[in-house]
């Protein structure tokens, strides 16, 4: 973070300020609400409405997710040319159309076309959203706005999943209603983003963007993107692997999983903004390094839980989850600051589009890591993830000096 940003912040200020902050927050919450409403039932949704088997649906989702990755470089360049807001709104409209198509058309071909368009539009949205936040944030408030985007995301996902669990019926008509409701929610999000205050865009020539938009040559950004992707694999592995491990290996009651994720969601929602204010005082490279290292607490708790039982086991898991979640707060905040701060202004879209390739690869790798580990030797999963944390921390701390003061604080100008 730039020195001017630190100076602009008061010691007690936690909530971000600036024009349009409420509308931005409501739009983000509405978007996350729609996603949370759909996400827990996504596989059942696709199977029911496409008429295909689960294995076919899984294959189509994996193939289309990977096929969408090369297009993200183009998406990033479009963001740099026209600005993040139009791309964000267009991606939301496309997403809504995808859900209407899922309800209208069945079969593997329609599923493949729809999920490919959905994958591209979702990645485009994830590229544009933080850049909209940066455009809206007054000087000294960028990290708070980025933190706010995470707060409303976590809150919306949690509320959406809760609502879906209560009202969605496991039937074709129930899933059709889910798809239409999701499409309506996404269109409402697009409308909300459309009325967020506009900010002037800096003038960058198309030639300049075209010549300089080569993020793969920026070793600092590439390092952060790779480390962020590795830590994302860890987070996704926890999300999908921990329930299986807790229920099958530890033989704990099913409510344990819900409680642990409730702790995770509660801490993320309640502490993201105040914790971000504390983290602003430290270089984000260091925050990212030590945030990833705290993931070890949950891995250690899961391994130790196999040797304990009763109250001790439960306390171990809860404590491990709390510390892990605090690390997750640090990782997401520092990664956002670095990934949006390191690129020059005229190339932010191209850089973040490039980063989405790593994000997409992470979402493809994590399920394979989880399924193969849990099917073979379950503790290997947690030892493997522990190795990822240790290596990531060592690499970041070993290369921190290369970033320099400005870059390590997430600041970049518009120079090569």
UniProtKB/TrEMBL annotation:
It is found in: Cell membrane. The chain crosses the membrane at residues 20-47, 59-79, 99-120, 151-169, 175-196, 221-238, 250-275, 287-306, 312-339, 351-374, 380-398. It comes from the Bacteria. GO terms for cellular component: plasma membrane. Residues 20-404 form the Major facilitator superfamily (MFS) profile domain. Keywords: Cell membrane, Membrane, Transmembrane, Transmembrane helix, Transport. It is a multi-pass membrane protein. GO terms for molecular function: transmembrane transporter activity. This is MFS transporter. It comes from Streptomyces albidoflavus.
């Amino acid at each position: 973070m730039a020195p001017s940003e630190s100076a602009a912040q008061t010691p007690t200020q936690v909530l971000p300020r600036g024009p349009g902050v409420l509308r931005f927050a409501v739009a983000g919450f509405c978007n996350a609400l729609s996603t949370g409403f759909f996400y827990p039932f996504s596989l059942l949704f696709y199977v029911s409405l496409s008429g295909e088997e689960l294995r076919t649906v899984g294959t189509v989702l994996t193939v289309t997710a990977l096929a969408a990755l090369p297009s993200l470089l183009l998406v990033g360049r479009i963001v740099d040319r026209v600005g993040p807001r139009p791309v964000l709104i267009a991606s939301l409209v496309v997403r809504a159309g995808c859900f209407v198509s899922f309800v209208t058309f069945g079969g593997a071909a329609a599923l493949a076309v729809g999920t490919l368009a959905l994958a591209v539009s979702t990645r485009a949205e994830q590229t544009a959203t933080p850049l909209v936040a940066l455009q809206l944030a007054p000087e000294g408030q960028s990290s708070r706005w980025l933190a706010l985007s995470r707060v409303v995301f976590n809150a919306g996902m949690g509320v959406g999943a809760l609502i879906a669990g209560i009202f969605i019926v496991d039937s074709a008509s129930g899933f059709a209603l889910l798809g239409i409701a999701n499409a309506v929610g996404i269109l409402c999000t697009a409308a909300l983003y459309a009325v967020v205050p506009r900010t002037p865009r800096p003038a960058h020539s198309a030639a300049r963007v075209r010549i300089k938009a080569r993020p793969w040559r920026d070793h600092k950004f590439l390092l952060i993107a790779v480390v962020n992707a590795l830590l994302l694999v860890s987070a996704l592995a926890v999300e999908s692997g921990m329930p299986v491990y807790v229920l099958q290996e530890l033989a704990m009651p099913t409510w344990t999983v819900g409680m642990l994720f409730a702790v995770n969601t509660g801490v993320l929602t309640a502490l993201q903004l105040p914790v971000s204010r504390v983290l602003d005082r430290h270089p984000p490279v260091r925050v990212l390094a030590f945030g990833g290292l705290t993931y070890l607490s949950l891995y250690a708790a899961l391994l130790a839980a196999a040797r304990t039982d009763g109250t001790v086991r439960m306390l171990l898991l809860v404590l491990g989850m709390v510390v892990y979640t605090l690390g997750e707060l640090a990782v997401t905040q520092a990664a956002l600051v670095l990934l949006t701060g390191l690129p020059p202004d005229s190339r932010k879209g191209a850089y973040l589009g490039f980063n989405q390739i790593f994000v997409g690869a992470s979402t493809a790798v994590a399920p394979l890591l989880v399924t193969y580990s849990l099917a073979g030797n379950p503790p290997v999963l947690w030892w493997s993830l522990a190795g990822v944390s240790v290596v990531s921390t060592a690499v970041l701390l070993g290369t921190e000096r290369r970033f320099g003061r400005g870059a390590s604080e997430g600041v970049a100008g518009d120079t090569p």
